[in-house]
Amino acid sequence: MIDWDVAVNTGVRLVRPGPQVDLADARQAVVQLRELSNVAAGHVRDFTGMNPLEPAGPAVIVDRPGWIRANVDGFRVVIEPVLEQMSAGRLGDGAAASLTSAVGSRITGVQLGAVLAYLAGKVLGQYELFLPPDPDGTLPTGRLTLVAPNIVNTERELDVDPHDFRLWVCLHEETHRMQFTATPWLRGHVQDLMRELLLSSEMDAGDLITRLRAAGEAVADAVRGGEGNLLTAIQSPEQNEIMDRVTAVMSLAEGHGDYVMDAVGPSVVPSVERIRARFQKRREAANPLDRLMRQLLGMDMKMRQYEEGAAFVRSVVAQVGMAEFNKVWTSRETLPTLAEIRDPDAWVNRVVRPAAITE
Question: Among 170-174, 223-227, 228-232, which range has the highest average pLDDT?
Answer without folding.
Answer: 170-174
